[in-house]
């Protein structure tokens, strides 16, 4: 049976029908706050239950609990604050209790009931969430550049933003029906922000050996410079699944959500999100959601011990490598050979082949995937 | 004794921690059990176990399906059109 939603309630704050018509009219008269694509994506994710049990952006009580205890104020596990930042001048005429219209590109996205306006300590946020205040951490730089105040309260969604990957976008209520229709009882979620190389495929197939289905769910949206562009990731997975996976065991869908690079905390957050999609298991590999050397390779495994009530089972899968003597992909636990026989596949190595437009060895990346990557003039975010 | 405590506890408590009573014999048993484990106190162990048990009880209480048949039909139709089914 698919996982129960986090907090036991799948949130739906999408307004439809006559109520939507009415609220769209009302939205025209309300004070407006223009939000970024990332915040618009968060708004839409809240409304469609991706962040269940959240019904809006966090008020201070939840924010403080999440920051310091990694739980909401009702004790439900939650590791990354979902917050909406504003400039003081954006809200001069707005007070707690007011309704406002959130817009993106001047289009109304949602109506938000402002329950609370509060200040935040960005440095403390970085210390707690990223365990770093070093500006070379992309999450730190992004946080320090955010606005000075936070507004919290529930939202009602009026419009989605344009989604170029519409055919690959499924919401939790839809994946839940899909998994049931496929009669899957156990589903492993796989989070990624990369094109798939053989190391990823090994991890995915290792997990799939033990569960009924695999839910490959790459993030699209804000990522750091040098990461792969969204369309490259989507096209690469299309060909990988077409050629190398049994079709009845895979569901591929994208999720528009920013990468935070918050390592262990983000690993738990990613698991919670996939639980809402119905996953019973979640794959946590080496340096999950990490960046540079900010986190220890398996630090993300440790944090899960703090959440006996998470409601989704982490699948800890070790880093894989190609062993010349074993003649295939293995990991430290199952390969007895010495280091000189082991070839580690990394995104950095793959990147070098791409930049030189040189064909990598077949143990590194599937030829069909590499062909897709090379079909882009520049597959990387600038 | 527990009944009286329940009446007293009908209000929601605020703050970070509160105290609950357990028999001393149980406390000592737990203290012995958690020696040389990752748990650093009886309170930490009890919190861990309670969260695990309560989450499981909450899941059991939940209705098996939260989606109406009509909604399910609409979603299945969409999934068919997208090629997922």
Give a quick precis of the structure:
The complex is a heterodimer of chains A (382) and B (85). Chain A has 382 residues and is of the alpha/beta class.
Report on the architecture of this protein:
The complex is a heterodimer of chains A (382) and B (85). Chain A has 382 residues and is α/β, with parallel strands linked by helices. Chain A has 2 domains: 6-157, Sulfate adenylyltransferase, CATH 3.10.400; 166-374, Rossmann fold. Helices cover 32% and strands 19% of the residues of chain A. Chain A is built from 12 helices and 16 strands. The model of chain A has no long low-confidence stretch (mean pLDDT 95). Chain B has one domain (2-81). Chain B is elongated and about 60 Å long. The interface between A and B is medium-sized, with 22 and 23 residues.
Layout of helices and strands:
The complex is a heterodimer of chains A (382) and B (85).
Chain A: H1 17-29, E1 32-34, H2 37-47, E2 56-57, H3 60-69, E3 84-86, E4 99-104, E5 107-113, E6 116-119, H4 122-130, H5 138-144, E7 149-157, H6 172-181, E8 187-192, H7 198-208, E9 213-220, H8 230-244, E10 250-252, E11 255-256, H9 263-276, E12 281-284, H10 299-303, E13 313-316, E14 320-323, E15 328-331, E16 342-343, H11 347-356, H12 367-374
Parallel strand pairs in A: 1-4, 8-9, 8-12, 9-10, 9-11, 12-13
Antiparallel strand pairs in A: 2-7, 3-7, 4-5, 5-7, 6-7, 14-15, 14-16
Chain B: H1 2-8, H2 24-33, H3 42-61, H4 69-82
Q: How many domain units of chain B? A: 1
Query: What share of the residues of chain A lie within helices?
Result: 25-40%
Structural class of chain A: alpha/beta
Runs of chain B in which pLDDT lies below 50 for 5 or more consecutive residues are none
User: In terms of per-residue confidence, which ranges of chain A show pLDDT below 50 for 5 or more consecutive residues?
Assistant: none
Main beta sheet of chain A, described? 7 strands, mixed
Strand content of chain B: under 5%
Task: Tell me roughly what share of residues is in helical segments of chain B.
Answer: 55-70%
For the record, what CATH class of the largest domain in chain A applies? Alpha Beta
Overall pLDDT metric of chain B:
84
Number of domains of chain A: 2
Order of helices and strands of chain B: HHHH
The quaternary structure here is heterodimer
Task: Tell me the CATH superfamily of the largest domain in chain A.
Answer: HUPs
CATH topology of the largest domain in chain A: Rossmann fold
The H/E string of chain A reads HEHEHEEEEHHEHEHEHEEHEHEEEEHH
């Amino acid at each position: 049976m698919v996982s129960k939603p986090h907090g036991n309630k799948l949130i739906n704050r999408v307004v439809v029908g006559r109520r939507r018509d009415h609220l769209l009219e009302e939205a025209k008269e309300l004070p407006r706050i223009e939000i970024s694509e990332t915040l618009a994506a968060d708004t839409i994710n809240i409304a469609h239950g991706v962040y269940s049990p959240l019904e809006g952006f966090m008020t201070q009580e939840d924010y403080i609990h999440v920051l310091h205890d990694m739980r909401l104020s009702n004790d439900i596990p939650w590791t990354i604050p979902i917050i909406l930042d504003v400039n003081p001048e954006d809200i001069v005429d707005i007070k707690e209790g007011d309704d406002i219209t959130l817009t993106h590109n001047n289009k109304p996205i949602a109506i938000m009931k402002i329950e609370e306006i509060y200040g935040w300590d960005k440095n403390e946020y970085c210390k707690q969430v990223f365990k770093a205040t070093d500006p070379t951490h992309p999450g730190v730089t992004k946080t320090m550049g955010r606005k000075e105040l936070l507004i919290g309260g529930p939202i009602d969604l009026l419009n989605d933003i344009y989604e170029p990957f519409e055919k690959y976008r499924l919401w939790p209520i839809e994946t839940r029906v899909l998994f049931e229709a496929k009669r899957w009882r156990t589903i492993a979620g796989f989070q990624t922000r990369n094109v798939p190389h053989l190391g990823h495929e090994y991890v995915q197939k290792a997990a799939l050996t033990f569960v009924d289905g695999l839910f490959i769910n790459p993030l699209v949206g804000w990522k750091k410079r040098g990461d792969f562009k969204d369309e490259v990731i989507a096209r690469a997975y299309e060909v990988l699944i077409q050629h190398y996976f049994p079709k009845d065991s895979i569901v591929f869908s994208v999720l528009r959500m920013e990468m935070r690079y918050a390592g262990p905390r983000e690993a738990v957050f990613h698991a919670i999100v996939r639980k809402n999609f119905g996953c019973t298991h979640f794959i946590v590999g080496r340096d999950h959601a990490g960046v540079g050397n900010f986190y220890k390779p398996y630090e993300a495994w440790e944090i899960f011990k703090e959440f006996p009530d998470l409601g989704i089972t982490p699948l800890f899968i070790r880093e894989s490598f190609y062993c010349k003597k074993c003649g295939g992909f293995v990991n430290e636990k199952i390969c007895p050979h010495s280091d000189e026989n082991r070839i580690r596949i990394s995104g950095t190595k793959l990147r070098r082949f791409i930049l030189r437009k040189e064909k990598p060895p077949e143990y590194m990346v599937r030829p069909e995937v590499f062909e897709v990557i090379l079909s882009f003039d520049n597959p990387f975010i600038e | 004794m527990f009944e009286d405590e329940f009446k007293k506890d009908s209000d929601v408590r605020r703050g970070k921690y509160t105290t609950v009573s357990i028999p001393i014999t149980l406390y000592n048993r737990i203290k012995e059990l958690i020696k040389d484990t990752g748990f650093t106190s009886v309170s930490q162990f009890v919190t861990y176990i309670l969260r695990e048990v309560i989450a499981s009880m909450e899941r059991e209480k939940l209705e098996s399906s939260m989606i109406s048949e009509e909604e399910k039909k609409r979603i299945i139709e969409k999934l068919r059109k997208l090629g997922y089914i």
